[in-house]
Write a structure and sequence with these properties.
By secondary structure, this protein is mainly α. The protein is about 55% helix and about 5% strand. The chain binds zinc ion (2 copies). One zinc ion (ZN) binds next to strand 2 and helix 2.
């Protein structure tokens, strides 16, 4: 069972495909979540649907009562987010026209993409000419905006382990290149680095998988 398709279309048009919680423009990266979860008796009536971006959706479900961190989204609050946002969309569409349509993907999606890029870097270690470098701008951004702090422990560990492994590999490359090319210390580092880079590879893959699972959809909009 799912929400009726025609009514989902109407709802998505009404909210301008923007997330009802963070108001980000989502394009196809939007989902209709259950305000009252199905396992708590929530229905597939459209009144129980709230359009949210992948990140907000994941956050809504990430709260762990055993490990309370932050404040849980409750159905009543979600309903108010939806009503509030639809009211703005209905009554003040001018606001939406003037607002910059951020093409910005969420910080966790950006982190997944950065891990994919780093996976490619790790697959072709090229330290002889210092090669391509690991990137961590999206990790920094995700930390800054608090997206790492809300992750479940095992996901956060996987992400941080991957970046620590990448950093360790980068440091070996850097220290090799602080020595004159062709010197013993240079050669040692350059020989050691590809192994360290390869070591980072499974951890990069694991972090990517954990994040993808976290952002995975349980009620994709079709
Ligand atoms: Zn959102
Ligand atoms: Zn959900």
């Amino acid at each position: 069972m799912a929400f009726p398709r025609d009514l989902v279309s109407k709802l998505l048009a009404r909210c301008h495909r923007r997330c009802c919680v963070c108001h980000r423009f989502c394009g196809i990266k939007i989902e209709t979540d259950h305000i009252v979860p199905k396992e708590q008796g929530g229905s597939d009536d459209i009144e129980n649907a709230i359009p949210v971006c992948f990140e907000c959706h994941a956050e809504i479900h990430s709260y762990n009562d055993q490990h309370p961190r932050g404040r849980k989204f409750l159905p009543d609050e979600l309903r108010q987010h939806k009503e509030q946002w639809l009211k703005i969309c209905d009554e003040r569409p001018d606001v939406l026209v003037s607002v910059h349509r951020a093409a910005d993907v969420g910080p966790l999606q950006a982190l997944i993409d950065e891990l994919a890029l780093n996976g490619k870097v790790a697959a072709r270690p090229n330290v002889q000419d210092q090669g391509a470098r690991f990137h961590d701008a999206q990790l920094r951004r995700a930390i800054e905006v608090g997206s790492i702090a809300i992750l479940r422990d095992e996901i956060r560990e996987a992400v941080l382990d991957a970046y620590v492994a990448m950093d360790a590999a980068s440091q070996i490359v850097d220290s090799a290149w602080r020595h004159p090319k062709g010197s013993n210390s240079w050669a040692e580092g350059v020989n050691e680095a590809p192994r360290r880079i390869k070591d980072a590879q499974p951890q990069i893959t694991k972090a990517q998988e954990e994040l993808l699972k976290f952002l995975a959809t349980e009620s994709p909009v079709v």
